[in-house]
């Protein structure tokens, strides 16, 4: 459950929609309660791999908002991917590489609003450069 809430809008350009979703994701990754919960979950997974498998299975039962959005945009022909889950995971990897893993594993400070904007815009632009259709209103 990621808290992301933005339905794909076929009549709107992709970039602003995706930027809004990415900013929601970055806000979640910055939330101190989320960070604390993630640390506890990761520690539990290290100590009990079988419990980690159960957690992953339960989390997989509900598709994440970003993946739902990518799936809808791809089905509408505006993104060129036949694997929306993979594409969504790539985008999330770009975000988490700056705004999650350094904070979780190295106790780095949360990104500033300016850093969040830079990371979000760069990730969206890279994603759309790879998956956006040239004939689509990006």
UniProtKB/TrEMBL annotation:
InterPro entries: Tet_transcr_reg_TetR-rel_C_sf, TetR_C_Proteobacteria
Top-level taxon: Bacteria
Matching Gene3D superfamilies: Tetracycline Repressor, domain 2
Domain called Transcriptional regulator TetR C-terminal Proteobacteria type: residue spans: 17-132
A matching Pfam family: TetR_C_7
Entry coiled-coil feature ranges: none
Protein name from the UniProt record: Transcriptional regulator TetR C-terminal Proteobacteria type domain-containing protein
């Amino acid at each position: 459950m990621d808290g992301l809430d933005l339905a794909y809008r076929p009549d709107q350009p992709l970039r602003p929609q995706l930027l809004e979703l990415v900013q929601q994701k970055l806000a979640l990754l910055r939330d101190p309660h989320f960070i604390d919960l993630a640390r506890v979950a990761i520690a539990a997974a290290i100590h009990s791999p079988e419990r980690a498998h159960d957690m992953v299975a339960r989390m997989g039962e509900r598709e994440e908002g970003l993946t739902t959005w990518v799936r809808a945009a791809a089905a509408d022909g505006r993104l060129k991917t036949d694997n929306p889950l993979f594409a969504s995971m790539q985008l999330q990897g770009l975000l988490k590489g700056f705004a999650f893993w350094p904070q979780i594993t190295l106790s780095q400070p949360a990104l500033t609003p300016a850093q969040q904007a830079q990371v979000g815009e760069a990730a969206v632009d890279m994603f759309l450069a790879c998956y956006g259709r040239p004939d689509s209103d990006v």
